[in-house]
Amino acid sequence: MATPPTHTTDTLLARLRHRLQPPETPRTSDPLVSSPAPLVLPEVEFAGYAEDCRIFGFLRLDAERLSDALNAHAQVQLVDALVIALDDGHALPAEELWVAREELLAVRASGPRGNPGRRSRSRPYPVALQSGPYEIHGYLHGPPGADPIRQLARRPPMVPLTEAWVMYQAAGQDHRARVGTLIVNRELLDWVRPARNEEVAIPSLPMEPALDPRAKDLTGYIWTNGRPRGPGAP
Fold first, then answer.
1. Could you give the residue range(s) of every CATH 2.30.30.100 domain in the chain?
2. Exposed/middle/buried for residue 229 (C-beta within 10 Å: 0-12, 13-18, 19+)
3. Could you give the CA distance from residue 146 to residue 150 in angstroms, rounded to a whole number?
4. What CATH number has the domain spanning 12-105?
5. Using an 8 Å Cβ cutoff, are 175 and 168 in contact?
6. Residue 138's pLDDT is what?
7. How far apart are CA 32 and CA 77, in angstroms?
8. What is the pLDDT of residues 126-135, one digit of tens each?
9. Are 78 and 51 in contact (CB under 8 A)?
10. Which residues 6+ apart lie within 8 Å of 123 measured at CB?
11. In Å, how far from its chain's centre is CA 153?
12. CA 128 centroid distance within chain
């Protein structure tokens, strides 16, 4: 099992730009790592939202769901990672990358949905929230008749929203897209409020493009000389 790296005060994007190690966070549990053979854990795609960048890669899942893994581990280790700066869209690759949970504002859900038998009766509540540069709308699931905002404060740090969409600026341009289920870090929210169904249900929005860091063609996310290349580029 890999050993978590030592602490620095740099942001994730700054560490990559200066080729520094990721930060060490308090060890509340063993870190989630990419496990070598003979122990083979399922690999899932990772797409995260940080304060100054988007993070893509792959990790080995040691829990039923990605949200369970993120709540169980103070850090995750990604392989074949790609970090894309929000300010200018430049991409920085890393064969291995440690990311602390406290650096993740949100993560797009992927992988298995967990054991259906463990799901409790709930209803969706529309909510709107702000986390760093990201404005997010979606459905927070909770017990019928409960106050969803009060319930949110009692949940583990990483909480899923369904039918979510996100709005933020990337390379100076407004970006708004649907993301499906989005796992948000409630400990890093700037604000959250109840919303109306019509604020969440916007079927005309395009889907946030999926990105495979192992693919040779990364058009749509790679920016060159400050200009985007790929579909939708001006």
1. 120-200
2. middle
3. 8
4. 2.30.30
5. yes
6. 97
7. 6
8. 999 999 999 9
9. no
10. 141, 142, 143, 144
11. 19
12. 17
